[in-house]
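[User]
Um, tokens okay?
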Amino acid sequence: MKLRKVTAATSAALALAVTATACGGSDDDKGSSGGGDKISIGIKFDQPGIGQKTPDGKYEGFDVDVATYVAKELGHDAGDIQWKEAKSADRETMLQRGDVDFIAASYSINDERAAKVDFAGPYLLAHQDVLIRADDNSIKAPKDLNSKKLCSVTGSTSAQNIKDKLAPKAQLQNYGGYSECLTGVENNALDALTTDDSILAGYAAQSQFKGKFKLGGFKMTNENYGIGVKKGSDLKAKINKALEKMVSDGSWEKAVKANFGPANYKNEPAPKIGNIVK
């Protein structure tokens, strides 16, 4: 009899535990958009001022600040964030596979990408520009890049765009990374580096380069940075709401000045959600 009583009590306890689990759910069941413990966010690891993993393992930059603010509005503390490197060629695949909840990685919105993923934002309007030495007064307009050594990273179309449309005699130089281009410009081996002005400002804002470079201010293209999410995700609307709040409470402007200010980056005003500038 005593054995049967213990068994019945145990069975009752097990049934109660199962019921509680079914009603409450585990942390894993909560999901990133519902206030779960962890959220995975894709950023660049190698773009100072935008998204960078520092030697001591920290993450910093404008995209990091934006993503951290958005995550907080979604119910996640900074310590809940799992940062993942989102290289340009991998971003759509990472979202489609569910490797990350969203991506904020100098991610320009265009029709080709929008066919594969959804975008919240835009949260920054950048432009293709050039970075030149601070004492170089020979490059005042895109046409002045003719016969100049113009650098961009291998695989980028930025330099080719200038040669095709603005300065056909520009001497294109492809390097493995922006840092290599920057060193070349600093040492007079190259005349200019081209990519998005926000990325250029991030590099120029580094303490070791303070006062050595300047932006051309040419605004050769419009780059609408958006936050990528999986196609059909309800996160899009939630992130848009968070971005609007970030602008209205002054946090957006504060992040711009903190990350780009040392380079005298003349940023565009915060764009309106859904307003894609062609």
